[in-house]
């Protein structure tokens, strides 16, 4: 019975994702209402990386990036599609969270080969310990977008035998240039005022991403 259910589930996935959406091909300002209607696995949520309304999906096999097919390697793999509002559903960016080591490396290589020199970069690597903490940020004027990658690799012990296991969590984010976030209503107005006095551009998305980098 379990095998039959698994087979039916796989058939459903193949039928529902016959046509994969290339996130790199989505144009900013596109109404993605029809795309959303074709996705069974979606709900309103927020990745915390893009300060705008988002739809979250965990069935990554419906998507690809630059021709690279995504997969459902882990329950923690996620796709977020960001929109200007839940009413208009105009596409403004995406966040993809990957824990598959091979797919993560393939996507990283893709962006590094496509984007050229980043405007900000941070790399802290200890190869002998399997540790990596890295960030990249590109200001892509040609495609009117910002591209951000955060890579985090660690090693941990697996099972009683103490076998080493790699843990990977990488964030790939693309968002339209020039967007400005609105301060949360719960923020103390005095704190917001002080922040803007220190940096009048503090709520511009580009400035927010730059603030994620270590000083």
From TrEMBL:
Keywords: Signal
The UniProt record lists the keyword Signal: yes
Signal sequence interval, chain numbering: 1-19
PROSITE patterns: PROKAR_LIPOPROTEIN
Protein name: Lipoprotein
Species of origin: Apibacter muscae
